[in-house]
């Protein structure tokens, strides 16, 4: 069963179209990465899922229930961490965590203390004195200490140090193991690449890609570095080859994944001395979407 | 579903606001009970009270504190209610506006509400908890005031009257609680909510001032006018209480309806896109500070003019009142050729001077708010010295104080000259008004000093201003020890044109202010910047 289902959701703020027919789903036991440039509509989508803003059209459900009408019921099993956490200055971190947990009716002290330990938080300090990273920890602890089936995380690691980022990744893997689902919106693409089973890319309010990392890779290019006996400059004329460079006898270029076998045939005739191929990183994927956008704009 | 976990949120709200609520409760109950006991000790005979009644009956007093009633038998109760009820009700309104804004739009603006709403909490739970909390607070303070007055067992202040006195204050608080809850659905920012709500309060006061002098209907349109119709301790009418509660209920329902319909973070008043580039005006510390407070400054300037004008507009009636009241003229005697009107003017002058100090202090204290939010750092790390930062805020505050005072006096003169047969000359009025500038400067100095020296206690300056107001206002009515009145800088200014002008107190005030400011500037440069 799908934990989240978003069906042609659009949102307008006045005349501004923030979301346009957004569609994706998050399945049971999967971590779904949700990426896109600033202002693309990630947070708007998440706020619709949380039932705190209303979609102009389309329909979104969590656990099969309507996100706006059944918000309270849904929230019993959903944990949310925003990227910018503001807390009540005159309460201590510990008080805030307990308040959040008991509002969900799930104050599990062992789990809470374990997480406070893991994230190395001093819960006795007033929330007003916490740094950004520490405020973020409070939201993370409150989320992972709850008995939720779905975690909605909107840039949850902003402000965390690399050690704490590791702890966060462990927490995500842990809940995934328990069959829970995670919607992770992030700009740290290496993190998304490492944690996520499937990925969706949103740009200007529209979903432009959705699938596993492998699926997405098929749509893009493979990086190849090769040393050959004969000159490989003819490769520049082979369809599907891009950005051919020669540096100290090593050619490096990118190949459209669907043309890979034809290019390899050409290469083998040139006498390969060494070859190295890398699948595109998520960053490459992401940049490519940026670039095609730029080129379209220029053209 | 809409109200899930409202009880828990209510407790959470209590936990958040227990300190502030306690301070409001103690000060409001304390001041009322103390004033009541001061009133009763003051006039021993009915005759004394009766002569007081006649001075209170004039239109200037009516505009300021509301219509007198029961004047033919001016008991302690009637006197106290007439002179204290309106101002205390305004304090209830201010309390309700500030608390509701802090709990609704401010929480929402800062993203705290988003965190709460991601929990299994109903869409209307937070607003409900706020309205319930502030309502209970208003009821508790009102009842405590009522019980306190009964417990004092003072002549002329019966049981029903005392309870009604407290409840009149309560319903004023409720009216402003509900209107602020409603406005917080409309404006996207907490500053907007506070601004609009105070605008409602000010319009309510002016409407009542003009209405009480000239038109009953106008007064009834104002919540402040409406609640005064209880005629506490004389007639004890209950209908204004019920009407006010009914209106509050309607506003609350509309607020709930709007809150349920709208997106989190959105307001119903649409914000429009702003400029793409900073204008040349903006690109200096002075320009930036002015721009950030543009709305505040302009609104206060307008308010001060209308406040002066609405007091001025009753001067015609005031003149006629004194002419027709020979008994009163005889009783007060001819004070060296100054008309009664001029004598009342001196009192209005102090009130206007204290009012004009509010925007000055407000504009200066913005620097504290900016510091708390970590925004002074943006300026301090960009080659603007601390000296320059604080000097900019201070200069803007002083200028705004001068402009406010000038416009209040101008409004007073403008309106009064339209309605008086023998108008007061503008120059005389201006002299009287602007003599208060050193007193205003001293209050500003206290604000600067607190900011520089004990930044967390800057709100104390408001306490000093409120104290000044009550000593000056009550000082004329009750027998207050001189040293208590002398703590206020405003009581040292010669009251022109009735008093002679005297440089000594003015120079002393200026001297103290200068020393205080120098000390403040030094200690601000030494202290840590606080985030």
What does this structure look like?
The complex is a heterodimer of chains A (299) and B (531). Chain A has 299 residues and is of the alpha/beta class. Helix content of chain A is 34%, strand content 31%. Chain A has a 6-stranded mixed beta sheet, sandwiched between helices. In chain A, strands 2-1-4-5 form a 4-stranded antiparallel beta sheet, with helices on one face. In chain A, helix 6 links the parallel strand 7 (150-154) and strand 8 (181-185). In chain A, helix 3 (93-103) runs parallel beside helix 5 and helix 4 packs antiparallel against helix 5. The longest helix of chain A is centred in the C-terminal third of the chain and has 17 residues, at 282-298. Chain A is elongated, with a radius of gyration of 23 Å. The relative contact order of chain A is 0.13. The mean pLDDT of chain A is 89. With 531 residues, chain B is an all-alpha fold. Chain B has 2 domains: 1-263, no CATH class; 282-531, no CATH class. Helix content of chain B is 75%, strand content 0%. Chain B has 24 helices and no strands. In chain B, helix 7 (125-152) packs antiparallel against helix 8 (159-186). Chain B is globular, with a radius of gyration of 24 Å. Chain A binds chain B through residues 13-14, 47, 50-54, 70-73, 75-76, 78-80, 82, 84-88, 90-91, 99-100, 102-105, 139, 152, and chain B through 1, 4-5, 8-9, 12, 15-16, 19, 110-112, 114-123, 263-266, 270.
Oligomer: heterodimer
Morphology call of chain A: elongated
Number of helices of chain A: 10
**Class per helix and strand makeup of chain B:** mainly alpha
Largest sheet of chain A: 6 strands, mixed
| Helix/strand order of chain A, N-terminal first | EEEHEEHEHHHEHEHEEHEEEHEH
Helix content of chain A: 25-40%
Q: Overall pLDDT of chain B, averaged? A: 88
What proportion of the residues of chain B form beta strands (DSSP E)? Answer: under 5%
The helix-strand sequence of chain B is HHHHHHHHHHHHHHHHHHHHHHHH
CATH names the topology of the largest domain in chain A as: Rossmann fold
Keywords (chain A): ATP-binding, Nucleotide-binding, Transport
GO molecular function (chain A): ATP binding; ATP hydrolysis activity
Protein name (chain A): ABC-2 type transport system ATP-binding protein
Pfam families (chain A): ABC_tran, DrrA1-3_C
